[in-house]
């Protein structure tokens, strides 16, 4: 039986072998914008000198003394832009904590782990960054806030290397954290988490393909609906809750529980309107007036019937020649829609809609 520690090691190795440092390089290469600003306001030589000095600053840790004499050994070049296009965050900077966090966030977003856990088994006092990573929600949300703050310093449409990777990783990490906590996620987050473009996911939703998630009127996707999309892709379910709660780095005895033989999941066919909304137990429940109980309203205008039980309302819809029901619009007003097709949905997914 495979242990959680072994599973962590496998994922860590896969991450380390495939990681291309794009988010980290994206934190330093866009700083070339400083040179562009200086050159536009002063002249090329001044920009070359400034960018030459800036590389020296970025490679020196705050606790270390600046050795300005190193600048005398190399003449600034007017081709500094080419140098900054190839700058290596890991080797050419003192590697600040923000880069370490960006590195770890990628592992969380796509592998469901944090690499800093590999140091938990070591003796001695642990650095604060490793201790912080034990509170995964705080670590992830704090890192996302830090990185999105960095992104906000650039104008919309900026195409500096690494900025898109930072944004995508932040979306994927935010989506995974919500999904792990059984919270609905956005279309952009699910696209990033499943490593497809938002356009591809949107096309699947519009085409109403078999594995396409159902998007509620508020633009969110319920966890059960997201699961049907993720399971058909190379998604690695998170192990952080089990790994940390069992302190798996202390023992190899924390085995991954074998999958139980699950009972066949129940599926139902529910009507779906032209706008993509379906007849759902939560979304279509009308609160009712003070003298009424919450209920579902089905049928054409003037022929409407109210049902307090969702199952009864759904059964009644199946007997109608043209099923119609009331559901809230963007303003919260319940209007009548007509079935365009019947959609097969799992009972668990339907319970969240």
From TrEMBL:
Protein name as annotated: Uncharacterized protein
């Amino acid at each position: 039986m495979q242990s959680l520690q072994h599973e962590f090691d496998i994922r860590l190795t896969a991450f380390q072998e495939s990681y291309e440092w794009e988010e980290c390089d994206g934190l330093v290469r866009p700083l070339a914008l400083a040179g562009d600003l200086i050159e536009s306001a002063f002249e090329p030589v001044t920009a070359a000198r400034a960018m030459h000095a800036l590389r020296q600053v970025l490679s020196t840790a705050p606790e270390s003394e600046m050795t300005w004499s190193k600048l005398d050994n190399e003449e600034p070049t007017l081709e500094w832009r080419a140098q900054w296009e190839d700058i290596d965050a890991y080797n050419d900077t003192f590697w600040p904590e923000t880069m370490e966090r960006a590195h770890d966030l990628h592992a969380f977003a796509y592998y469901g782990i944090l690499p800093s856990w590999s140091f938990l088994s070591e003796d001695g006092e642990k650095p604060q960054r490793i201790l912080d990573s034990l509170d995964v929600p705080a670590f992830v949300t704090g890192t996302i806030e830090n990185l999105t703050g960095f992104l906000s310093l650039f104008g919309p449409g900026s195409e500096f290397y690494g900025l898109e990777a930072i944004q995508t990783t932040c979306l994927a990490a935010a989506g995974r954290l919500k999904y792990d906590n059984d919270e609905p996620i956005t279309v952009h987050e699910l696209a990033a988490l499943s490593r497809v473009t938002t356009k591809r996911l949107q096309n699947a939703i519009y085409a109403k393909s078999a594995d396409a998630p159902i998007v509620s009127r508020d633009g969110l996707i319920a966890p059960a609906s997201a699961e049907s999309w993720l399971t058909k892709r190379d998604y690695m379910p998170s192990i952080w809750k089990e790994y940390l709660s069992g302190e798996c780095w202390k023992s190899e005895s924390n085995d991954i529980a074998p999958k139980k033989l699950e009972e066949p999941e129940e599926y139902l066919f529910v009507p779906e309107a032209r706008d993509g909304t379906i007849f759902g137990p939560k979304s279509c429940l009308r609160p009712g007036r003070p003298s009424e109980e919450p209920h579902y309203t089905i049928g054409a205008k003037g022929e409407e019937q109210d049902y307090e039980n969702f199952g009864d309302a759904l059964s009644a819809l199946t007997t109608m020649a043209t099923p119609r029901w009331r559901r809230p619009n963007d303003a919260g007003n319940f209007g009548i829609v007509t079935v365009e097709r019947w959609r097969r949905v799992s009972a668990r997914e339907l319970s969240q809609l």
